[in-house]
Specification:
mainly alpha; MetI-like_sf; cell membrane; single chain; ArtM/GltK/GlnP/TcyL/YhdX-like
């Protein structure tokens, strides 16, 4: 068996288009998952008892199911009940619904890790809840939040490859098409693995850089406030 990346030269645009679609899908899913995760956190902390029970049931159900099962249910079962959506929309919504409980748990853990004394101090000097959240909780919780959140977003990026099973045109779907044309699975999947690794490494590096900047800015703010 030979290893010749030259056979992929004519398919670079197709693979690139598939990867761009993957980035768009992941960005959309991440934003929706974060928004839903924030709403779940607020609902758990401030909602009425029935709402908290409903949120807990949703979180428990979602965390207990594989993503692939949710994809199959969303794409193949819901149309029987009149819910028919494009494959890309199903993929984005399913990823968001699946990852939102994880996001909520990460946010909750980061908030709980903020020393209660700092919040009580803000209340004592008459700060509003919004000001406490913005000036006390957020600067302390965000550095704690970023590492785990980065892991979730990397997991979402890798799990997006599962969307190919419902015919969403993304990187893995494009790679399968190239394999069927070239009969060169070794070269194609080597490139796919390399691109996924590079993308996750770049995301991890960018987040760590952001984390260090936030920590440095917070430290400078604390020093200037003394």
């Amino acid at each position: 068996m030979t290893f010749d990346l030259g056979v992929l030269a004519a398919y670079v645009p197709s693979l690139l288009h598939g990867f761009i679609d993957t980035i768009w899908l992941c960005a959309s899913s991440s934003l929706l998952a974060c928004a839903l995760g924030i709403l779940l956190t607020i609902g758990r902390r401030r909602g009425a008892r029935p709402l908290v029970v409903l949120i807990d049931a949703y979180v428990t159900l979602t965390l207990g199911l594989p993503l692939l099962v949710l994809l199959y249910v969303s794409f193949y079962v819901l149309p029987d009940f009149g819910v028919l959506l494009p494959a890309a929309v199903v993929g984005v919504l399913t990823l968001a619904i699946y990852y939102a409980p994880y996001v909520a748990q990460v946010i909750q853990a980061a908030i709980d890790a903020v020393p209660k004394g700092t919040v009580e101090a803000g209340i004592a000097i008459g700060m509003s809840p919004a000001a406490i959240a913005r000036r006390i909780v957020a600067p302390q919780a965000l550095p704690l939040l970023l590492p785990t959140m980065t892991g979730l977003m990397i997991g979402l990026l890798k799990d997006s490859a599962l969307l190919s099973v419902i015919s969403v045109h993304e990187f893995m779907f494009a790679a399968k098409s190239v394999v069927s044309d070239t009969y060169a699975p070794l070269e194609v999947y080597f490139v796919v693995a390399l691109v996924y690794w590079a993308a996750t490494a770049a995301l991890n590096h960018a987040t760590r850089t952001w984390e260090h900047r936030i920590a440095r800015t917070h430290a400078q703010g604390v020093a200037s406030g003394r």
